[in-house]
Amino acid sequence: MTAYTATVTVRLKRGVLDPEAETTQRALERLGFELEDLRSADRFELDLDAESAAAAEERVDEMAERLLANPTIHDYEVEVTER
Amino acid sequence: MTAYTATVTVRLKRGVLDPEAETTQRALERLGFELEDLRSADRFELDLDAESAAAAEERVDEMAERLLANPTIHDYEVEVTER
């Protein structure tokens, strides 16, 4: 077993409204910053043990499907590195 | 002016309680997944124009200090790439 850290980035799909990001962008503009666009995402960092990086990725993929992301409105990305 | 995308990752400082991450970890464990640890973070992706990558990073750093992160409880990281 090897120790891995997996990073899951959960983003809203294109076309899904993101009022939090809009509010944040407007607040930054009110402070005088110029921005083309701002998107927000959730990031989870998971420490886990697995036989291989591929096995870790498969397991974390399942966690994302079942709990971390909502496939109706979210896209997600998994990245696995050795710890 | 060049177009850049900056990614700001905002994490709770070590020692700051993170009930959302704890709840998520426990929910995953209840589904049968084994985890050593789970940390959650916010991620902002900003599209902006700047003279150089260094100028973009400096500007985004200021946005993080002033609005995106709360320096009392958060650490943050800025990464700039050309768009």
TrEMBL record, chains A, B:
Pathway recorded for this protein: Purine metabolism; IMP biosynthesis via de novo pathway; 5-amino-1-(5-phospho-D-ribosyl)imidazole from N(2)-formyl-N(1)-(5-phospho-D-ribosyl)glycinamide: step 1/2
Predominant cellular place of this UniProt entry's protein: cytoplasm
Catalysed reactions, as listed in the record: N(2)-formyl-N(1)-(5-phospho-beta-D-ribosyl)glycinamide + L-glutamine + ATP + H2O = 2-formamido-N(1)-(5-O-phospho-beta-D-ribosyl)acetamidine + L-glutamate + ADP + phosphate + H(+)
Leading EC class: ligase
Keyword Nucleotide-binding tagged: yes
EC number: 6.3.5.3
GO cellular component terms attached to this protein's record: cytoplasm
Gene Ontology terms, MF aspect: ATP binding; phosphoribosylformylglycinamidine synthase activity
Keyword annotations of the record: ATP-binding, Cytoplasm, Ligase, Nucleotide-binding, Purine biosynthesis
Cited InterPro entries: PurS, PurS-like_sf
GO biological process, alphabetically ordered: 'de novo' IMP biosynthetic process
Cellular compartment(s): Cytoplasm
Function noted in UniProt: Part of the phosphoribosylformylglycinamidine synthase complex involved in the purines biosynthetic pathway. Catalyzes the ATP-dependent conversion of formylglycinamide ribonucleotide (FGAR) and glutamine to yield formylglycinamidine ribonucleotide (FGAM) and glutamate. The FGAM synthase complex is composed of three subunits. PurQ produces an ammonia molecule by converting glutamine to glutamate. PurL transfers the ammonia molecule to FGAR to form FGAM in an ATP-dependent manner.
Subunit annotation: Part of the FGAM synthase complex composed of 1 PurL, 1 PurQ and 2 PurS subunits.
The protein's name: Phosphoribosylformylglycinamidine synthase subunit PurS
Source species: Haloplanus rubicundus
Lineage: Archaea, Methanobacteriati, Methanobacteriota, Stenosarchaea group, Halobacteria
Gene: purS
